[in-house]
Amino acid sequence: MKKILFILGFLLIINSTFAQDCGGYFAFKKGMKVEMTSYDKKDKPTLTTKYEVIDYKPVDGGVSMSFAHEVYDAKGKLISKSESSGKCVGGDYYTDIRNISSDMMPKSPDMKVTVTGDQMIYPRDLKVGDNLKDASINVKSGFEGGMTLMNMTASITNRKAEGYETVETPAGKFECVKLTYNMNVKFMGNRTLKCTEYIAKGVGLVKTEQYDEKGNRQTYMVVTKIEGQ
User: Is the pTM here over 0.85, yes or no?
Assistant: First the structure.
């Protein structure tokens, strides 16, 4: 279950690390690289995720971007590679979880994995008290022409800009907007997580946290390196 929840959280934040070159909270530059490290509730490193902006192209009112991702375990072993995309239109950033490669999901040669869902929108001009649009995601896997082995759905609700905080990480000190939301996961029962994101102007995602129903922090991720900014 913990592995599934990590994959789900990764799907939701993977595209919000980078964004546009048209202003707002997210930085974008071809060749820019960001490293983020995940920790468990005992502050033990569990995973390292590396992102790179590999391409961009104009679209109506903005730009579309492509990203490459690599995930390493605590011992530095590569465990998955994938690509995804996002876009900036009118200064607002739109993730697109539907384009995330299924390479990051466990599978066999006969396994089919599909990821569907809504775009998560990050407005250019975030203000404390703003309510952001809800979203949902579905991850389904099974054998070609056979039965479904996994069918997991998560609903993202109550997305709010709660306030401003200074966040210090190995990559530096950042002035951030704190965003919170609820994530209800339907997989082998129901589970609700309280999630927090910290984003900084010109940088993007700096830190994320996941809390259980009792308010205990389960996992968190912080930016540990930025290159080519």
Answer: no
Domain boundaries defined on the chain: 2-227
- The pLDDT tens digits for 102-134 are 444 544 566 677 778 777 888 888 889 999 999
Among 4, 1, 3, 2, smallest CA distance to 137 is for 4
The CATH class that applies to domain 2-227 reads mainly beta
- For the segment 47-91, what is each residue's pLDDT rounded down to a tens digit? 998 988 888 777 777 788 888 888 899 999 998 888 877 788 877
